[in-house]
Design goal:
With 375 residues, the chain is an alpha+beta fold. It folds into 3 domains: 4-47 and 163-231 and 315-374, FAD/NAD(P)-binding domain (3-Layer(bba) Sandwich); 96-154, no CATH class; 232-312, D-Amino Acid Oxidase, Chain A, domain 2 (2-Layer Sandwich), CATH 3.30.9.10. The protein has 9 helices and 17 strands. Strands 1, 2, 8, 9, 10, 11, 16 and 17 form an 8-stranded mixed sheet that branches. A 4-stranded antiparallel sheet has the order 13-14-12-15, with helices on one face. The chain has a 3-stranded antiparallel sheet with strand order 4-6-5. Strand 1 (4-11), helix 1 and strand 2 (31-35) form a beta-alpha-beta unit. Helix 1 (15-26) packs parallel to helix 5, helix 1 (15-26) packs across helix 8 (341-354) and helix 2 crosses helix 5. Bound molecules: flavin-adenine dinucleotide. Flavin-adenine dinucleotide binds at residues 11-17, 34-37, 40-44, 46-50, 52, 185-186, 213-215, 217, 221, 236, 238, 266, 308-311, 333-339.
Amino acid sequence: MTMKHSDFLVVGAGLIGSAVACGLLRRNHSVTLLDEGGEALRASLGNFGLVWVQGKGQGARHYAEWCHEASEVFPEYARQLQDETGVELAYRKPGGLTLCHGEAEYQKRTQVLERLKNESRHGAYDCSMLSRQEVQKMLPTLTLGPGVTGGSYSPHDGYLNPLALLKALHTSITLGGGAFCSGTAAINIRYENGRFLISTQKGEFSAEKIVLAAGHGITRLAAMVGMQVEVHPQQGQLMVTERTRPVLSMPISGIQQTAEGSFIVGLSNREVGFNTDTDTRLLKQMAQRVVNAFPALASLRIVRSWSSLRVLSADGLPIYQQSEICPGAYAITSHSGVTLAPLHQTHIADWIVDGVQPDEFENFSTRRFDVEKIA
Ligand SMILES: Cc1cc2nc3c(=O)[nH]c(=O)nc-3n(C[C@H](O)[C@H](O)[C@H](O)COP(=O)(O)OP(=O)(O)OC[C@H]3O[C@@H](n4cnc5c(N)ncnc54)[C@H](O)[C@@H]3O)c2cc1C
């Protein structure tokens, strides 16, 4: 079998690896993308599609700013990706709401925003608490249930069709001349004479640099090039309703109406290991919360439900790490892979091509966990 060589090998064609691969191609390098597919866990196929800023980054200003930057560049990013690939992303940025049910939730949300404001660089955090009346004014076509006490609103939030985003990235890779090898799991990685060799069932691949973006598969692969990258699964369950006329004009944390008219509900996070079963009791609770928010939706039929596993680091923040033992090997993993796609395609790809780590990336390196261990 002949060895296939390229400048970069990217392992994992989910939202993270695909966005990085697009960025590498844009810098005129040859890129091969290997993806296991099949039975592999793939967070990018089961997510909610929010481009979301509000509430993120408590105690981690760098992450709050990172998400904010992504939301700022997202409209232009989406426009360009759509123009290039012809894939309609259904991206909209009307701002987003988080609803509060009851007084305790309202107080808690107020405290979260207060903390984010205090931690922000200029003492300002562009997300406001709204009274019940103010929320109702923003949602004129849906009457709020009696238990809704208000909510928070940020103009920076938006949403899209996440499967379309993944399809657009894959299309862009193909159009850009990238080699896409699906059904090709990286089995072993060797580092020899400054080159990486990845063995798969379909033969061996080599490259000057490699990007490990294999979601839940990253820990095993990263260890082969001297990196300790720990991630764990957190299950999220989602359900989708039949289509109805457009009534919800902006995404609400956990509830959104798609361009086609279906409601998608995703209001859960459970620590159940690699279990991807759905749980009827939990789905019922989620549906009840939606009906409590908007009683008029009670008659909608649920047509599908699924669960998917978030890929989370110990503190829930991204990991962007270059191997110290095998320079040229990078581990990239993150929750919020939809939101951060434009930054993974630009800043992360530039770092990998140029080899110059932006200062702020130190916050996202695995070294932060060493500090925690010592402390
Ligand atoms: C329920 C849920 C809701 C979410 N909602 C949002 C949201 O609203 N907004 C947002 O921004 N983010 C959201 N996310 C997070 C987002 O989906 C993830 O950040 C993103 O999908 C992670 O992408 P990834 O490429 O790292 O992982 P994955 O999508 O899991 O991709 C990893 C890829 O690596 C491949 N792979 C694994 N091992 C190997 C190997 N050995 N060789 C080759 N290939 C391999 C797999 O086949 C897979 O395709 C949500 C996630 C979940 C689970």
